[in-house]
Amino acid sequence: MRKLLSLLLLLAALPLAAQTPEVDSLIDIHHVEIVGRRPMKQIGVQQTLLEKGLLKEHIALSMADVLNFGSNVYVKSHGRATQSTVAFRGTSPSHTQVLWNGMKINSPTLGMTDFSLIPSYFIDEASLLHGTSSVTETGGGLGGAVKLATRPTQTEGFELQFVQGVGSFETFDEYLRLGYGNERWQLSTRLVYATSPNEYKYVNRDKKENIYDENGQIIEQYYPTERNRNGSFRDFHALQEVYYKANRGHRFSLVAWYADTNRELPMITTSYASDERIENRQREQTLRTLVGWEQIRSRGRMSAAVGYIHSWAAYDRKVALTHTDEPSDTPSEGLPDGTMEYSRNRTHTLYGRFNGEFTPNERWLLSGDVTLHRHWARSLGKQVIDSEGTHRLGFDKARTELTATATLRWRATDWLGWGATLREELYGDDLSPLIPALFVDAELLRGGRLVVKGSASRNYRFPSLNDLYFQPGGNPDLRPEKGWSYDVGISFKAIDSKKVTLTGEATWFDSYIDDWIFWYPKAMGYYTPANVKEVHSYGIESRLSLEWRPSKDWTVALNGTYAWTPSKNVGEHFSSADRSVGKQLPYVPLHSASAGLRVAWRQWSLDYKWCSYSERYTLSSNGSTITGTLDGYALSNLSLGRSFSFRWCDLSLKGSINNLFDKEYMAVLAHPMPGINYEFFIGITPRWGKKN
Question: What average pLDDT score do residues 222-236 get?
Fold first, then answer.
């Protein structure tokens, strides 16, 4: 506790250090650099910036889709409008921390984030912090962190944009943005609404149908063609933003994001149940609000934010006597008629953050951060166990998470930079050991043309509330997962006469995680977590981007990523039947890659996207059974767009072909994905007022 108090006192002194003469203009300290010099915040940092064009490609994309085709992290997806999680460097989804405008949005109960619930059109800036680099922003990111942010549009006058999307399987997407802005105010309202029965067809290779002769003898077998049963969805998202720029460098913001989703969970390939009688539905309503203040001065900045998150989630699995889209929320002492499983979860989170930065001169940067999350979680449920009745599930718990961080950056010479971060975390009554991170980079060629960088850090992840208290099976005696991460890399940038720009990066990483939390089955018929694994993850991450502008009208952009990620359990056998030691972790591909090609000519654009994952094991033993391995796959998407400018509006048209080569594949066992499918989008933006 003394270490945490010491950090808090140090951070409290930052505002006093930053009290320099006030200025009226807003000077972003991120850009207070001599021309040609890399920002001090980037010293030793392994970061992937996602292009804005990729985020705004079309309204049907979620952040899961963007990361799938635009990065080298692994996206585990059950299909559109079903759970999609992201994992860095051979870790699990709970080891990926997600920040939205600085506020952590990982579920306090599950510990992970569903990226299918994040519309990419709601995100203006996105970046990935790999491994050690996440320690400067948040704790618990044993694999890394994803940073998402919204930004004002700098509109003058009124603005309206509407996009209508129509796709295969009777899929409809609508997007509306209303905005108003002047020198001081920026107001924006964004709405997204998507619906679909999602009944695509696939060949079910987990079943066989027999063909009989006239004597009843089997003469032939075939795989039946089925449809995605019980896969409908209805998603609604609303984002309200208010930004105000005051005098003397003050800036205020209010951002509120509401999501209401109603989704069926598709039946697996081995199910023989009649879909007309099955109710397998998940609903969620989430409100995230954030109020922020920032003051920027000539040698520093201060910012503060307070926020609140409320989330309600429901799950119902039943044999429906009468099919309904709205299962009962007030069951009797038993369960509603036909219900096999019933779950209701409600969480509240209060958030507060203070951040300060001070630059005494061009060679030093001192920053500090104090963050508070207070969670309340209530989980209630019932489940049919046997003919004797139901079993009650759930818990009602609260936890405080308090972190303090201090970071020092020093540019020792024009070509050599150092950085150090110290983080302290308090989870409930548990105080972590001091978490250090060290960074270094050397600019071998000026202007960032050739940079060598490295980093090392310790990190901790405390168990989620479900890990500790879920009933039945929660384990309150779990220890935090802890690890050491190291990486070293090289990046380069080459520019030829402003027509060709080539950038690239390659990184070697090495990570050790002890007390890995693993849920395993017990003889009583349910799962329970335990600290049973030690994981060694290592490998290579690489990126390459090329942009060529042969003339004023033409642009050709090519980018690609590749990752090689061995991630193995190197701990002791936790039972005589354990065959997981020395094996690749489940659902971690050894090889993953993505590529994109964009050709633009005047108002035309052609985009080709490709991603590939090697085979993945579904069992920790890497068993070779039919269900133990998922084949690798490669996907291709193609889109063609055209924009028009009229006196009264801007108009855009785009057509997309997904899974261009009609590949049969599964990202998750027993959940086949759709074959070739199509989407068309039309967008209209009236010309009201003046836009900068």
Answer: 93
